[in-house]
Amino acid sequence: MADTKYIFVTGGVVSSLGKGIIASSLGKLLQARGYRVTIQKFDPYINVDPGTLNPYEHGECYVTVDGHEADLDLGHYERFLNIQTTRANNITTGRIYQNVIEKERRGDYLGKTVQVIPHITDEIKRNVKSLGVKNKFDFVITEIGGTVGDIESTPFLEAVRQLRWELGRNCFCLHLTYVPYIAAAGEVKTKPTQHSVKELQSLGIQPDMLVLRTERKLNKEILDKVALFCNVEQGAVMQSVDVSTIYEVPLMMQKQGMDEVLLRKLNMPTEGEADLERWKAFLQKRKDAKKEVRIKLVGKYAELPDAYKSINEALSQAAIYNNRNLVLDVCHSEKITPENVAEILGDADGIVIAPGFGQRGIEGKFIALKYARENNLPTFGICLGMQCMVIEYARNVLGLADANSTEMDPKVTHNVIDLMEEQKHITNMGATMRLGAFDCTIKKGSLAFKAYGKAKVQERHRHRYEFNNKYKEMFEAAGMKCTGINPDSDLVEVVEVPTLRWYLGTQFHPEYNSTVVSPNPLFMSFMEAAAATREENI
Ligand code: GLN
Fold first, then answer.
1. Is 35 helix (H, G, I), strand (E, B) or coil?
2. Alpha carbon of 358 to ligand 1 centroid (Å)
3. What is this structure's pTM?
4. pLDDT tens digits, one per residue of 56-107
5. Is 461 in the pocket of ligand 1 (CB under 6 A)?
6. Cis before 519 (ω within 30)
7. Cis, peptide link before residue 498, omega less than 30° from 0
């Protein structure tokens, strides 16, 4: 069996160029040639994981099946490659230092002075190579977060430099940069790219391939000029022009021969072509979907496009598979009042109530839910969204006017949502929620069962509070049914109101496992209902 190959993806000039999308696209092309591929991300910040970050910092917190709170790029990896990642796929500076300090405290370093080189870099290298053990993968792609030249990413780049030596021909470096267009001069400028590559070279890393992110198509002369100045082979400089969807990027890279160039440079066979039939079929469906479906997502991070990344993607995938063009409007929950709710949600074909933490914006979610329920609009509550469904139902249908979650009101009498027993003695905030995939048994005959088509499912969680089983009978008698239950803990994972068209909430996050070739069944079912509502609305 051939050795595992290691590909490093770095970025220069500015951040937010889409390294994650380029890494995922390269991964997709290799996977579509039949290779086993995984992708990991190093984040240079000191937090041990992004679980304690609010969405204003780095957008949504993604959750892996094994319960790791991860960077949202892992969501891209899973959606592109249809794989499951784990805690080994996302590592921060904080985690590297934590491991090294733990080893130091145990006495593992036998009296040595513990230093950035070699101890921190060794720990980084160990975390790269651990994904390649036992030849489980043909390719391990490692994305280095941040921008070349940042102080914080220097140890990671030093580790890459060392690995290049150790791995020899089994290593490949791809550098992503930005080529700006200067309107006043009417020209694109490659100088920032040249500087960024020089910076990388000064750290001892010579890129094998460059990807130039650009808003305007670059001609061959520009690409060749960059190749010449940056010591990169002609033909190994690709361009990534803005496209209408990130899912076009693998095809755009394939057209430029990205996978072929890489394989040739790694001395691997280059014949044949990546088989992207299903991928292309999805993109074709996207193009063909002309009819609209209007979804309103109600949450408190309306101004942040990355805060609900996985939900947006899951909705758009489901819309495309339902032959619909998704028109998604994120509504700020703090701005919804009983007076304006009809105006804000009036033209919606479906409503999603977002996950979240804390009191801010919560009343707007209740108002939106009451409106959706009374107007029989397809409604999907996710995590906090499901908890809000329960609270709104308790207040307005069960007549428990003060019902609430103890998260919002610790002294509430009717604690229909309550802190989970296992959470009561926890004081640390990091990685202490109920996290990762758990079994859920779906009741036959329910809407959820119809969507999944089976009784045993697994979905991912991230929460501390939970439906209070003391109220279960009361809810069921009043029409809100508990149709998904964890078989081990008896926790309620799904609620629904069967007398309504599509009114369902999940304690778990089904958006995390929705991928391009395998959309999540609940999102599919919700979208089908929303599309049907659209037809009636017209
Ligand atoms: N804040 C709620 C809880 O901790 C919901 C969390 C979420 O929406 N992810 O239970």
1. coil
2. 8
3. 0.96
4. 888 999 999 999 999 999 999 999 999 999 999 999 999 999 999 999 999 9
5. no
6. no
7. no
